[in-house]
Design a protein that fits this description.
heterodimer, A: about 120 residues, mainly beta, 7-stranded mixed sheet, 4-stranded antiparallel sheet, 11 strands, B: about 120 residues, 6-stranded mixed sheet, about 0% helix
Chain lengths: ~120, ~120
């Protein structure tokens, strides 16, 4: 099994629908992230969490919400999906560890491709 | 604010050619970390290398090498004798170390360079 598992891998939905993307990890990492990838724009951070009760906005959080239900689970919700949220979404994790925060390597899930019609 | 610029959108080379992917970064942090990730056609993101800002030694790993130059804020990636399996999108990324400015433990990615290696 993958260290970081994202479900669903592919989803097609309609404008206005509520969508949840789920992420679970078996690496025991404290930190979890949601990124969005769009062609020509690279990856942009949506939300991140350094611990179960910690939620922080990234650079493009509008239209999204997250929930850190447990150390191993971090879900991303689109309350009312719109077409410009069509993208590839990645969950990632990193350990708190002994290294300075910025040094930690992110482990990514396989991605969830979302299409909003 | 942090910024990573990968000016090369797409590069095409013939197998066995050497190719260099450019990465220029901006940060106000005095300590920072630079990364390269590979995204093959299958879509997953694969970590390639991390470099600390206080270590400017170049690094070589097989056919891959990295040139870090603080003076020009660049962290370039060279593939020697490219192979078809190197075809992928390559991302350069930057993470700071400042909790105050919010750069700690958050990767800022460049827009990626798509490398196409043909026979």
């Amino acid at each position: 099994d993958a260290d970081v598992t994202q479900t669903p891998r592919n989803r097609i939905t309609k404008t206005g629908k509520r969508i949840m993307l789920e992420c679970s990890q078996t690496k025991g990492h404290d930190r979890m992230y949601w990124y969005r990838q769009d062609p020509g724009l690279g990856l942009r951070l949506i939300y991140y969490s350094f611990d179960v009760k910690d939620i922080n906005k990234g650079e493009i959080s509008d239209g999204y919400s997250v929930s850190r239900q447990a150390q191993a689970k971090f879900s991303l919700s689109l309350e009312s999906a719109i077409p410009n949220q069509t993208a590839l979404y990645f969950c990632a994790t990193s350990e708190k560890g002994q290294l300075p925060s910025g040094a930690n390597v992110l482990t990514f899930g396989a991605g969830s491709r979302l299409t909003v019609l | 604010a942090q910024k990573v610029t990968q000016a090369q959108t797409e590069i095409s080379v013939v197998e066995k050619e050497d190719v260099t992917l450019d990465c220029v970064y901006e940060t106000r942090d005095t300590t920072y970390y630079l990364f390269w990730y590979k995204q093959p056609p299958s879509g997953e993101l694969v970590f390639l290398i991390r470099r600390n800002s206080f270590d400017e030694q170049n690094e070589i790993s097989g056919r891959y090498s990295w040139n870090f130059q603080k003076s020009t804020s660049s962290f370039n990636f060279t593939i020697t004798a490219s192979q078809v399996v190197d075809s992928a999108v390559y991302f350069c990324a930057l993470s700071g170390n400042s909790i105050n400015t919010g750069t700690a433990s958050k990767l800022t990615f460049g827009t990626g360079t798509r490398l196409q290696v043909t026979l």
